[in-house]
Known about the structure:
The protein is of the alpha/beta class. The chain is built from 17 helices and 14 strands. The chain has helices at 12-15, 23-40, 42-52, 64-73, 76-94, 133-145, 165-174, 184-193, 210-219, 245-256, 271-285, 291-298, 309-319, 331-335, 352-357, 393-409, 413-424, and strands at 2-5, 103-106, 109-117, 120-124, 150-155, 178-181, 203-205, 225-226, 234-239, 263-268, 302-305, 323-327, 343-346, 383-391. A six-stranded parallel beta sheet has the order 1-11-10-9-12-13, with helices on both faces. α2 packs across α3 (42-52).
Amino acid sequence: MILIDYPDKSQWVSVIARPLADSKDLFAAVGGMLQRVKAEGDRAVLDYERQFDCASLDTLTVSDEEWSEAEKLVDGSLKEAIRVAAGNIRKFHSSQRFESVRVETSPGVTCWQKAVPIEKVGLYVPGGTAPLFSTVLMLAIPAKLADCPDIVLCTPPQRNGKVHPAVLFAASVAGVDHIYKVGGAQAIAAMAYGTETVPQVYKIAGPGNQYVTAAKQLVSLEGVAIDMPAGPSEVAVIADDEANPSFVAADLLSQAEHGPDSQAILFTTSAQLREKVQAEVMRQLEELPRKDIAARSLANSRLVLLHDMEEAIALSNAYAPEHLIIETGDYEAVAARITNAGSVFLGHYAPESAGDYASGTNHTLPTNGYARAYSGVNLDTFIRKITFQEISHQGICHIGPAIEILAANEQLDAHKNAVTIRMRQ
């Protein structure tokens, strides 16, 4: 990991820089893939599956036999853990239900909102180096709670051409019926444009690598909504001398093992803690099965020593991390000043892993600094709010003169006339 001591504010941009690919080349490559899928449909998708996921498929659809087989292959303890996580996720997201309120803005003028589910949503669950069955729960449960009628889920197959059984079991628990064996940018293209097999959707949600993120951003220019830009995962830890170095090291490594383009950053006011964390990271790293992946990620990661907590908070807000862990003695006071973060974990016993799996919050979060402007996936991700207004004759007479003046001053006479003829009626 890179050690940085007391950076001047002029250096902050480089301190919090992400390990990103050249966006020009990235968007050019992904754009070509999208257009090919748009033109060729299933044929292009199947070709990309052979090329990128090393899977030779006869069909993109998960068969009934595969669903049945998955139920038998998943260990009983894992099934129970998935059910526990699903219950907590369902409970937390159920609390986000929208309650409409009618407001009389003027006498005879009543306005309100109605929450309506998005009719066709696409969920993307990455595969890559690990089966992310937890992401199935994070996406599908709020989509089901929102009552979305058509839910399409795409996830990359394994080399044997099958979807990991735990992914299928999680989909069953979450209530998803239609899963397609498609990964990467080609999955985003398939859901955005539709193919002979994969239905077209109105909105796409889910995390992914830089190619998936680029694909989501490109299709959003063609009328398909997306949840947020959610690329390579990242964590920041704010810690002082009261933090446990073993805990901090474990938190950094839990992020690093996601993939080589992930990033973990420590912001600390304690040189002694940093030294202990560095040693503990190397010790714990040697015990990880995904050591090689984590080691590559650590090359992009930093241990930053700062003068005081003021700087730590300011630098964290500038970084706007996807995950933020606050391991300080006064973590509540520090948390109150956090303005930019996807999800925040407070205290010494709240690892990022809790939110990734079973605390109930969602782990599909904005990365790459987008937490400055985006929220993570929640119930509203799958809902539209339509506004209504009911206006009586008394109401139009009450607000009509103001509308006439406003319309006339914008030189929109037809707008003015639509009010005037009603007032004269």
